Amino acid sequence: MHFLLLSLPLYQLAESLPFPILYFLSSFPISDPSLKTTDERSMMMMMKMPWRRKTRSFHLQLQGAIGTIQSPFLFLFTNYCHSSTSTLEDARFLTNNFKSASFTHLDDAIASFNHVIHKHPLPSRVPFNRFLSALVKMKQYHTVLSMSKTIELLGISHDVYSLSILINCFSHLHLVDLGFSVFGKMLKLGLEPDVVTFTTLINGLCTQSKIDKAVEFFDDMVARGYQPNVYTYNVIVTGMCKFGKTSVAIGLLKGMADRGCEPDVVTYSAIIDALCKDELVGKALELFSQMRNKGISPDVITYTGLIHGVCKLGQKNQALALMNEMVEQNILPNVYTFNVLIDALCKDGMVSEAQNTFNVMIQRGVEPDVITYTSLIDGLCISDHFKEALALLKEMVGRNISPNVFTFNILMDGYCLCKQIDKARKVFDLMVTNEIADIFSYSILINGYWYVSSREAPNCTGAL
To answer: The pTM is what?
Structure first.
């Protein structure tokens, strides 16, 4: 076994990309008939790798980031022990499980993999790719990396799809630089990357907040003649909106049709949400109308962004109208939609309307979360309905929803307002014990002691 060595022209090609590519030298062995013995290979590697020491440090850094990847030989050993006791029925089950990639538990997947890699002849690359893709959907990224190593050791060559799977795993593990290492290997093997490969790398850069490099790589992709699809655009548009480049995202949206790619609901929703967060609700509503005129139906994310925007401007009636419009179009509001509206109503003192919205939420089968309850408890405390707030807290705990630091802070503040400083202190001590108290917790308690010593208590003694 020897390691990936880039020839000078290919190395220069990699260097010409928008940013340096880190080559993960210790992961992906390939065969080379020109190197016949282990000693010769080692000597050649030492001569051609002046940066070997740096690479070793980088490999240790990788292990620290994602943990030690299970040795591929462990799979082989496990399979050897398993196969000696397997029945014919078990063998058929494991083979079918591998082919269909229909497993639901990681142990079943590993057992199927260990069985299949000892079959003769071995499956082709295609079923292995399908199998690894199923593991990616289960978010078993480390396992995919380890199994991919085993597959390569068995002599099954990579293709674009298999290397794109590895890039996807590294991107999900927030190791996009290693994804570009695999990209470098793809070029070395003479494989032509496709739009999925580029999109996966762009997504990895956006995930790691490297939006400028993502835009640069996107432009480089287009300059090299690759046609981005709508998913590619959605990834880059969403990244731009997330990092405050909404105007650039709008420009990209306008240019999509010219490049032969029509935007979809995801493209529009990302920009509408960003505009609403920037309190540019008028522009968001214009884009919303443009979207519908093009025959693109809004979804729950589109409406949630708009409802959030109009709520920030204090337009609660328009928010309720949008919610009703959603329901009329059979678009079920989700917990985030309800949370936005409930929080806005509570902050505006419309607690009764917030409670009604909460009841509608329950009736429609949407499970409330800690944010839902915290917003309502806050609204009730502000409105001097402390007894109802405590009842809601008990209901929340009864649903196995754990209060967070905001919930406890609101509860402390409520006790302080009612001059129940001893109870506020008990809540504070509980927070300190559980290491969740923040600077606001201390401020609330300090203000509570001052409030109790300087003012009359509100009429809430009976409410406790």
So the answer is: 0.72
